[in-house]
C-alpha cells in the first residue's frame, strides 16, 4: 500500500510538469520562428451546427459532440468521442480537421478562445458553437494549440456581453493573426501531439492507481 501511494504522489507532479512543458514549448517555438500575417477568414470555410442538447444524448447511437463538452470534456484535440445521440433532424456532421469554437459562456471572454480540432469524419455537432473547415494551407492541429495558448487574449477582446458572453465567427473573421509557415506548423503539431499522448497515458495510469487504492482501502476494513 505504501508503494502504491508513493507511485500516485509521483504521478501527480509528472502530469503537471508535462502540461507546463507543453505550454513552454508552444510559446518558445512561436517566439523564435518567422511568422506571416493571415486573417481568421483566410483559415478556411466557416459553418454553423445544428441544435443538440443534453436531453438528446443517449447511451448508444451516432457519435456526437455538444457545445458544453468543449469546456468540460475535450481539450485542444478531439480524438475519442464520449457522447451519442439518435437525433437525425437538422444534423451537421464533422469533417476531419474541423476547428470547433464555443460561442457562449457565463465565465469570461478568455474561456471562449478554446477551440478543439476534431480528428474524425461523421460526428454530429450541435449546440452553441461554430466551426471552421480548415484549408490545406494551414495545420488544423497546430491552430488549435495556437488559439488556446498564443491568441487567447488577442481574440477575447472580440467577445461581447456581460452576464452571458458571446463570440461569433463574424466577430473574429477579420482579426489578423501572425502564424508560422505551414512547414513549422506541421513540425510543431507533430511534437505536441506526441507530448499529449504521453500526458494522456500518464492520466490513465493515474486513474488506474486511484482505482486500485480505493479497492484496497475498501477491503482493508472488511
Structure description:
Residues 72-202 form the Type I restriction modification DNA specificity domain. It comes from Leyella stercorea. The structure is a single chain. The chain has 222 residues and is α+β, with helices and mostly antiparallel strands. Helices cover 42% and strands 22% of the residues. The chain is built from 6 helices and 14 strands. The longest helix has 39 residues, at 182-220.
Describe, in short, the structure shown:
InterPro entries: Restrct_endonuc_typeI_TRD, Restrct_endonuc_typeI_TRD_sf, Type-I_RS_S_subunit. Pfam families: Methylase_S (PF01420). With 222 residues, this protein is of the alpha+beta class.
How is this fold's topology laid out?
Elements: H1 2-32, E1 36-39, E2 44-48, E3 57-58, E4 62-66, H2 69-72, E5 77-78, E6 83-85, E7 92-93, E8 98-102, E9 104-105, E10 116-118, E11 124-126, E12 129-134, H3 140-149, H4 152-156, E13 165-166, H5 169-172, E14 176-179, H6 182-220
Parallel strand pairs: 4-11, 5-10
Antiparallel strand pairs: 1-14, 2-12, 3-6, 4-6, 7-11, 8-10, 8-12, 9-13
Helix pairs in contact: 1-6, 3-6
GO molecular function: DNA binding; endonuclease activity
Protein name: Restriction endonuclease subunit S
Keywords: DNA-binding, Endonuclease, Hydrolase, Nuclease, Restriction system
Amino acid at each position: 500500500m505504501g508503494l502504491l501511494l508513493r507511485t500516485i504522489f509521483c504521478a501527480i507532479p509528472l502530469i503537471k510538469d508535462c502540461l507546463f512543458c507543453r505550454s513552454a514549448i508552444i510559446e518558445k517555438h512561436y517566439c523564435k520562428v518567422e511568422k506571416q500575417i493571415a486573417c481568421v477568414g483566410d483559415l478556411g470555410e466557416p459553418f454553423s451546427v445544428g441544435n443538440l442538447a443534453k436531453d438528446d444524448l443517449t447511451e448508444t447511437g451516432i457519435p456526437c459532440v455538444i457545445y458544453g463538452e468543449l469546456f468540460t470534456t475535450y481539450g485542444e484535440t478531439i480524438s475519442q468521442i464520449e457522447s451519442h445521440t439518435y437525433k437525425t433532424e437538422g444534423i451537421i456532421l464533422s469533417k476531419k480537421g474541423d476547428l470547433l469554437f464555443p460561442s457562449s459562456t457565463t465565465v469570461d471572454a478568455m474561456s471562449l478562445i478554446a477551440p478543439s480540432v476534431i480528428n474524425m469524419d461523421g460526428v454530429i455537432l450541435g449546440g452553441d458553437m461554430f466551426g471552421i473547415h480548415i484549408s490545406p494551407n494551414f495545420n488544423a492541429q497546430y491552430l488549435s494549440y495556437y488559439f488556446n495558448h498564443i491568441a487567447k487574449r488577442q481574440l477575447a477582446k472580440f467577445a461581447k456581453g456581460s452576464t452571458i458572453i458571446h463570440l461569433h465567427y463574424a466577430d473574429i473573421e477579420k482579426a489578423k493573426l501572425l502564424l508560422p509557415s505551414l512547414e513549422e506548423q506541421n513540425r510543431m503539431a507533430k511534437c505536441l501531439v506526441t507530448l499529449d499522448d504521453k500526458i494522456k497515458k500518464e492520466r490513465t495510469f493515474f486513474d488506474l492507481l486511484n482505482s486500485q487504492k480505493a479497492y484496497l482501502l475498501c477491503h482493508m476494513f472488511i
